[in-house]
Automatic annotation (TrEMBL):
SMART domains: FRI, GPS. The lineage of its organism: Eukaryota, Metazoa, Cnidaria, Anthozoa, Octocorallia. This is Plexin-B2-like isoform X1. It is found in: Membrane. Gene3D superfamilies: 2.60.220.50, Frizzled cysteine-rich domain, Rhodopsin 7-helix transmembrane proteins. InterPro entries: Frizzled_dom, Frizzled_dom_sf, GAIN_B, GAIN_dom_sf, GPCR_2-like_7TM, GPCR_2_secretin-like, GPS. Residues 626-793 form the GAIN-B domain. The keyword Lipid metabolism does not apply.
Length: 1057
């Protein structure tokens, strides 16, 4: 059905209904108006209103719209006074005596709110803060909903007496459904049929039948005996089960059977309603008609009043169409000629309803919800408006969602068709943008009448839900290529252009690329490398042709390795081309069609590749090596883990026989493809990052590869943390040099610029025998060895010594902290002092830091990487807590000894705890949220990189600086105070200052040593850092317990009785 926009004025009014409040001054002009008879909920209580109301509505029409968002609560029947309460808010009663509007009394507000409290909670209804009962008064000017006048003390006393003498029988709660049964009281002493906990819950559950009952009295019910009989039986049955009559007695089974039996009058009525667009369930109520406690097999008589208090039934055949990220289209069948309102809000939230309303013309059976939030589920309820009052009848609910959006993205290459900048786009929609270089100008395409635009589709996995949409490949077929003057670049551009427009086969394109690169690779520019990369990517994507094109892919890569290294690095910097070329090779080796035991092997001058399907059940290992024979390098493959002869291999990689045991596969049924690649020329693996120079001669030294690069992979598997390591051997290209050798692999996303760098994570140097280097790694990727690098210049002997010092020192330190905490806790005089409480928090924090360090500082001590990351976060947090508590100690002493008239701080320790334990938590949470990946690595469980510098080192340095200034001020004040400070206080102050300063110095020196641990002095400062850092707890015990005369006296008294 077609959809129409609703008026902006209605939307604005509904949005303001629960969110904006304007209180009117007494001096403002008051408009006195008669309440229309159609607004019977107000007209039956008073006849005149004075505007503006508290929301600044100047007319009855605008004020009446504010009722709509409250009607979901009204229809829960929670309070018979709710509508009157709303009248007194939106159309306040005019008092001719005071010439003012009367707001409801606080007592009336509290009575309404308490009655509706259960329904508010169950329906997550938003009760506006401006309607909080505390904002109303009980003075003589307020309006009492019960008797229309101000409340008085005698009324309250009468009410209390009535509550005190309540009996089992009570008047039936005022619900439109049960009010049809005359002369009725109810009892809830023994619960109801559904075991509801209260009458509030029973009434709330009863209200869910409002739409069905309204439909049985709606326009479709005229002259239909099934509707009439079903209505009578259903009303009586629902009231009997939810609000039992008092005194309690069973009713006739016939009422029950008329409602739930197949082919009964209710069955036929509900069936008829569903055929007309309703969606009522059958049976409408689950009940056992044979339950003798509630039903008897005899006729009972009851009287149902004939008037209709329910209003019109809800619209039918509701269809909600999510097509956009900020708009929902709703179509429905109206109830007669009545207008329809829609209330909506975010699903599962306690927020105010917003509203829209249809117009009579031009399309009354449609609504549009606009200005919604993308990717959001909405709760939507619709109701027909009464023809007289324009207030809603029964609601029917639905759930729908707005589409998510594809996010900003950039595609294309400057050298080809330019950069295409795609902005956020609704799911399931096209986006069209202009071509950067205009329309096609090829001689073959000039006659084609096309627009110079590019298109891209934002796709959804599920069309009508559209969660997590994604961009499809853009269509740039009508866009021109960049005009270039360089002849070689132009030639490559033409090959790519013909390939994109299917004017050349991929096999022929691969032949042309091999021919061009074999002759001109040494003259390539960065643009030529980029074009070659894109051509290779297009070729390898056609997996069905890889048996024809695969060898040319390897030959092209072999030729590209002859390009100048600085050109390859520049192309890598611009478009990540080197990494993309290597991925092309991986894609080729993984996707070329092979049968079991069949292999593909190709040996070129600069590169050699091999791939084969292996039976994982019979796998005994696999290895590849580059062996020099007759001045030529050959690729040799071994089908076991012991075949490689390192002294005859320039480079080798061996996969253990246990390889597939670490994989989550069924070794009995699944074959696995293993691939090897050897790069004898390593120009694809270039880094510009320099080593920290040890001397002036090394100031410009860069990290340098000292071997071929070899890689291994298993298709579809990311191998890490292998039980048995991958073994690689290398014959160094430069033998006899004394620089440090590092076993490394190429990380494509590492480095300061994210362009790739060598990393030693997961790889270990095993030694060198007969000029052959052996390395072990726990994962598969591209491996090599480096020389003259800063990456792994640690000495293994010193590492072990430092580790022993750390663990022994930390154990001693923890013992000292435990003794300190014990000492402070057993002496009441000590633990009640503010400095002691601060010290205790400091000791607890330092103890937790040491425990985490001892248990999980090294990656090998944790069960998983996730546990290592948790340990890293905990270590970050507790160390920051330690430093913050030193700062609190400094502040406390500053207040005590520097301030001339120190102020009293209530709950001082509590506030200190909030800062001491809370501020570090904020820093850690922000750091982890931004860069969680920087917590922990393959070796250590700690924060690293930029987050270490910003989220850890910076606050620590700031605290140390502030503490140093504070302690200088404290010492100065104590030394120069003279008679202003008593001698005993000055002595105590100096004692505290010396202790705290000692701790500060220890902590400050510790981290200063860590920062200075670089270059030639690195080893010395590492030892100093390790020693002082690991005995902090012991020093605390010495300063605050062993050297403290007060503590020694207390111990002496304790031990000597």
């Amino acid at each position: 059905m077609a959809t129409s926009k609703i008026s902006e004025s209605c939307v604005v009014i509904c949005l303001l209904a629960l969110t904006s409040v304007i209180y009117v001054n007494n001096s403002d002009a008051i408009v006195i108006d008669d309440i229309p008879r159609t607004i019977d909920i107000c007209y039956n209580y008073y006849r005149k209103t004075s505007l503006p109301n508290m929301y600044a509505d100047q007319t009855i029409a605008s004020a009446k719209m504010r009722f709509l968002p409250f009607y979901p609560l009204v229809h829960t029947f929670c309070s018979s006074e709710l509508e009157t309460f709303l009248c007194s808010i939106f159309l306040p009663r005019y008092d001719p005596v005071t010439n003012t509007s009367q707001r409801p009394c606080r007592e009336s507000c509290e009575r309404v709110y308490q009655s509706c409290k259960y329904a508010i909670g169950r329906s997550r209804f938003f009760w506006p803060p401006e309607l909080e009962c505390s904002k109303f008064s009980n003075d003589a000017t307020c309006y009492n909903l019960t008797n229309g006048s101000a409340t008085n003390n005698s009324d309250k006393e009468t009410s209390r007496r009535r509550q005190a003498i309540s009996t089992e029988c009570k008047p039936t709660p005022s619900t439109p459904i049960c009010s049809l049964i005359t002369e009725r009281q109810t009892t809830f002493q023994n619960g109801n049929y559904f075991n509801h906990s209260s009458t509030g819950e029973a009434v709330y559950e009863l209200s869910k039948y409002l739409n069905l009952i309204s439909s049985l009295r709606g326009p479709d019910a005229l002259n239909n005996v099934n509707y009439e009989n079903c209505f009578s039986s259903l009303v009586h049955l629902l009231c009997h089960l939810h609000l039992p009559v008092c005194p309690r007695s069973p009713v006739s089974q016939s009422f029950c059977l008329d409602v739930i039996s197949d082919n009964s009058k209710c069955f036929n009525a509900v069936k008829d309603l569903n055929t007309k667009g309703e969606n009522f369930t059958w049976p409408p109520v689950n009940v056992n008609c044979q339950d003798a406690k509630w039903f008897i097999n005899q006729i009972t008589v009851f009287v149902i009043q004939r008037f209709n208090p329910f209003g019109p039934p809800a619209p039918k055949n509701i269809q909600i169409t999510p097509q956009f990220s900020t708009r929902l289209n709703i179509s429905f069948d109206r109830t007669g000629d009545l207008n329809t309102t829609a209330l909506y809000r975010r699903r599962d939230t306690t927020t105010a309803y917003q509203c829209t309303t249809t117009h009579t013309l031009p399309r009354p059976g449609a609504l549009t919800l606009e200005q919604l939030t993308p990717a959001t589920d909405y709760e939507i309820i619709l109701a027909s408006l009464r023809s007289t009052s324009s207030l809603p009848g029964a609601f029917v609910g639905s759930i729908s969602n707005t589409f998510e959006q594809c996010q900003n993205d950039t595609t294309g290459e400057e050298i080809i068709q330019g950069k295409f900048f795609w902005t956020t786009q609704d799911g399931n929609q096209w986006q069209t943008i202009n071509c950067p270089y205009g329309e096609l100008d090829d001689i073959d395409d000039r006659s084609t009448d096309v627009e110079s635009t590019a298109k891209r589709f934002c796709a959804c996995d599920i069309p009508n839900v559209c969660k997590n949409p994604y961009w499809l490949k853009p269509n740039t077929s009508t866009c021109n290529f960049k005009r270039v003057n360089d002849e070689l670049t132009s030639t490559l551009s033409k090959v790519l252009r013909k390939l994109k427009r299917d004017k050349i086969s991929r096999h022929n394109a691969s032949e042309e690329l091999v021919g061009i690169a074999s002759i001109y690779a040494r003259e390539f520019t960065a643009n030529d490398v980029i074009l070659s990369t894109i051509i290779l990517e297009d070729i390898v994507n056609d997996t069905q042709q890889l048996n024809k094109t695969g060898s040319n892919i390897v030959k092209s890569m072999n030729n590209l390795l002859n390009t100048k290294e600085n050109v390859l690095f520049e192309s890598q910097r611009i478009t990540n081309s080197s990494a993309r070329i290597i991925r092309v090779l991986d894609q080729y080796l993984e996707n070329i069609l092979l049968t079991l035991s069949q292999n593909v092997s190709q040996n070129e001058e600069n590169i050699a590749v091999y791939t084969q399907e292996y039976n994982s059940r019979d796998f005994e290992g696999a290895a590849a090596a580059s062996v020099e024979q007759n001045t030529a390098h050959n690729l040799v493959i071994y089908d076991n883990e012991s075949g490689v002869q390192p002294n005859q291999s320039h480079v080798s990689l061996t996969m253990p026989s246990s390889l597939f045991k670490d994989l989550d596969i069924d070794v009995n049924t699944q074959n696995q493809r293993i691939s090897f690649a050897i790069y004898r020329k390593t120009s694809f693996f270039i880094t510009s990052e320099k080593k920290e120079p040890n001397s002036a001669s090394q100031a410009n030294a860069v990290r340098r590869k000292n071997s071929f690069v070899i890689s291994g992979s298993v298709k579809g598997q990311r191998l890490t943390n292998l039980t048995d390591p991958i073994k690689t051997t290398y014959q160094p290209l430069d033998v006899g040099r004394d620089e440090t050798t590092a076993c490394v692999f190429w990380n494509f996303t590492a480095g300061k610029s994210g362009l790739g760098n060598w990393s030693s994570v997961g790889c270990s140097y095993q030694g060198i025998v007969d000029d052959v280097v052996t390395c072990h790694c726990t994962h598969l990727t591209n491996f090599a060895i480096l020389m003259d690098v800063h990456i792994d210049d640690r000495d293994e002997t010193h590492d072990k010594v430092l580790s022993v010092i750390s663990y022994i020192g930390c154990a001693i330190s923890l013992f000292g902290l435990v003794l300190t905490i014990f000492t402070m806790l057993i002496f009441k005089d000590l633990r009640c002092k503010v400095p002691t409480r601060i010290l205790l928090n400091f000791c607890f924090a330092l103890s937790l830091t040491l425990i985490v360090f001892l248990v999980a500082a090294e990656r090998s001590n944790t069960s998983s990487f996730a546990a290592c990351r948790v340990a890293a976060i905990a270590l970050h947090y507790f160390v920051l807590v330690v430093f913050v508590w030193t700062s609190i100690q400094a502040y406390s002493m500053y207040l005590a000894f520097v301030k001339v008239m120190p102020r009293y701080h209530s709950k001082f320790i509590l506030k200190c705890c909030v800062v001491g334990w809370g501020l570090p938590a904020v820093i850690v949470i922000i750091t982890a949220a931004i860069a969680i990946e920087e917590y922990g690595d393959e070796n250590f469980c700690r924060v690293q990189g930029l987050p270490f510098q910003v989220g850890f080192l910076t606050p620590v340095v700031l605290i140390l600086v502030v503490n140093s200034i504070a302690f200088v001020l404290i010492i100065r004040s104590l030394l120069t105070a003279g008679s202003k400070v008593a001698a005993d206080k000055r002595a105590t102050g100096l004692q505290h200052a010396r202790r705290a300063s000692a701790i500060l110095v220890v902590l400050g020196l510790t981290w200063l040593f860590g920062i200075l641990a670089i270059r030639d002095a690195k080893l010395v400062f590492q030892y100093l850092f390790c020693i002082f850092n690991s005995i902090q707890g012991l020093l605390v015990f010495i300063f605050y317990c062993v050297l403290s005369s007060e503590t020694k006296v207390k111990y002496k008294n304790l031990l000597c009785g």
